[in-house]
């Protein structure tokens, strides 16, 4: 592999996961905070809130995972190698 | 794989190896099949078949033992489909949604729980079938076909009315959505499962004993959630395709 391509790929892989984790991190924090608020206000709805929260957390997590897929492609199946 | 080469010492440990992108190829005509995926998929399918036969062999009015468990699973899937598709049309789609959920769930968990590394293959290694992108893309495309079929069978050509439903300028976005739905479905599942396996693999490389256990437990949790999400989304897409926009909404 061309060393420039290798270096650029590794850097891009790191950036893809690192930058991709920022947004979902903020979003998951917001969602979890609101869920705690909701449970504090209405403890009897805890089960329903928890289920919805877990499902939506997984959706947000998927955004980072897309970045991870891109970085995995760059590391293990690099089309420019 | 040169990027993940670890100090030579670790290569002597059979449990601590990371392999991505190495396949156990079967050649069939012009096709290269990923053999390890087929082997584990067949195992999963066999297990599910055995469970179904055991659960339904001597069905009784008052369930006992294993039949109880299978009825619980069926009720779980039926409620999932009912919530997403709606009371009126959900029944024919329970088998499809249930198949997706059970296959993904069992393959995720078997990939994590069965010590596949003990089986040596000429190349590649056995793992969860869902950690191969071809499996997840196949499942996602099946979902696409299913919701198109659901829409057309319910409304005929009127299904295309969905594309301009709230306002007409939504048309391009709705068309793009038809492509992004299978893309995001397949990448989400594939990425999550492969990420779990890689994280566990890297931790096992660093500390072979005990330390990876909490991460493995977290992996079991996320893979169960991913199976649930895939099934939920498939049902939601089917429900969306069959939704009535026409004259008057009936109350729920």
Automatic annotation (TrEMBL), chain A:
Residue ranges crossing the lipid bilayer per the database entry: 53-77
Q: Which InterPro entries match?
A: ATP_synth_csu_bac/chlpt (IPR005953), ATP_synth_F0_csu (IPR000454), ATP_synth_F0_csu_DDCD_BS (IPR020537), ATP_synth_F0_csu_sf (IPR038662), ATPase_proteolipid_c-like_dom (IPR002379), F/V-ATP_Csub_sf (IPR035921)
Where does the record place the site Reversibly protonated during proton transport?
A: 61
PROSITE patterns named in the record: ATPASE_C (PS00605)
Q: How does it sit in the membrane?
A: Multi-pass membrane protein
GO CC terms on record? Answer: plasma membrane-derived thylakoid membrane; proton-transporting ATP synthase complex; proton-transporting two-sector ATPase complex, proton-transporting domain
* MF (Gene Ontology): lipid binding; proton-transporting ATP synthase activity, rotational mechanism
| Keywords carried by this UniProt record | ATP synthesis, CF(0), Hydrogen ion transport, Ion transport, Lipid-binding, Membrane, Thylakoid, Transmembrane, Transmembrane helix, Transport
**Origin: domain of life:** Bacteria
Q: Which SUPFAM superfamilies match?
A: F1F0 ATP synthase subunit C
Mainly resides where?
Answer: membrane
Tell me the ranges covered by the V-ATPase proteolipid subunit C-like domain, including all copies. Answer: 11-74
Localization: Cellular thylakoid membrane; Membrane
Q: Which NCBIfam families match?
A: ATP_synt_c, PRK07354.1
What's this chain's function?
A: Key component of the F(0) channel; it plays a direct role in translocation across the membrane. A homomeric c-ring of between 10-14 subunits forms the central stalk rotor element with the F(1) delta and epsilon subunits. F(1)F(0) ATP synthase produces ATP from ADP in the presence of a proton or sodium gradient. F-type ATPases consist of two structural domains, F(1) containing the extramembraneous catalytic core and F(0) containing the membrane proton channel, linked together by a central stalk and a peripheral stalk. During catalysis, ATP synthesis in the catalytic domain of F(1) is coupled via a rotary mechanism of the central stalk subunits to proton translocation.
Query: Which protein family is it in?
Result: Belongs to the ATPase C chain family.
Name the chain's protein: ATP synthase subunit c
The organism's taxonomic lineage, starting at the top = Bacteria, Bacillati, Cyanobacteriota, Cyanophyceae, Oculatellales
């Amino acid at each position: 592999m061309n060393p420039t391509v290798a270096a650029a790929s590794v850097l891009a892989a790191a950036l893809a996961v690192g930058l991709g984790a920022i947004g979902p991190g903020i979003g998951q924090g917001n969602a979890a905070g609101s869920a705690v608020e909701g449970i504090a206000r209405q403890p009897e709805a805890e089960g329903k809130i928890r289920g919805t929260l877990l499902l939506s957390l997984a959706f947000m997590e998927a955004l980072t995972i897309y970045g991870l897929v891109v970085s995995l492609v760059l590391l293990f199946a690099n089309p420019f190698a | 794989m040169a990027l993940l080469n670890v100090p030579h010492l670790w290569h002597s440990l059979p449990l601590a190896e990371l392999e991505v992108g190495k396949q156990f190829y079967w050649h069939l005509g012009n096709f290269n099949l990923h053999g390890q995926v087929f082997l584990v998929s067949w195992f999963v399918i066999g297990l599910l078949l055995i469970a179904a036969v055991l659960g339904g062999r001597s069905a009784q009015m008052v369930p006992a033992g294993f039949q109880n468990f299978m009825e619980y699973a069926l009720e779980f899937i039926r409620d999932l489909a009912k919530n997403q598709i709606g009371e009126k049309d959900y029944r024919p789609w329970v088998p499809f949604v249930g198949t997706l959920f059970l296959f993904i769930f069992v393959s995720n968990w078997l990939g994590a729980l069965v010590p596949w590394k003990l089986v040596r293959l000429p190349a590649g290694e056995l793992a969860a079938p869902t950690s191969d992108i071809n499996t997840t893309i196949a499942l996602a495309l099946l979902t696409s076909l299913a919701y198109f079929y659901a829409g057309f069978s319910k409304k005929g050509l009127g299904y295309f009315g969905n594309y301009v439903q709230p306002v007409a300028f939504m048309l391009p976005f709705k068309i793009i959505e038809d492509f992004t739905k299978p893309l995001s479905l397949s990448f989400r599942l594939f990425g999550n499962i492969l990420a779990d396996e890689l994280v566990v693999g890297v931790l096992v490389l660093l500390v072979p004993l005990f330390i990876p256990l909490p991460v493995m437990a977290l992996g079991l949790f996320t893979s169960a959630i991913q199976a649930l999400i895939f099934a939920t989304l498939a049902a939601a897409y089917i429900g969306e395709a069959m939704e009535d926009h026409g004259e008057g909404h009936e109350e729920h």
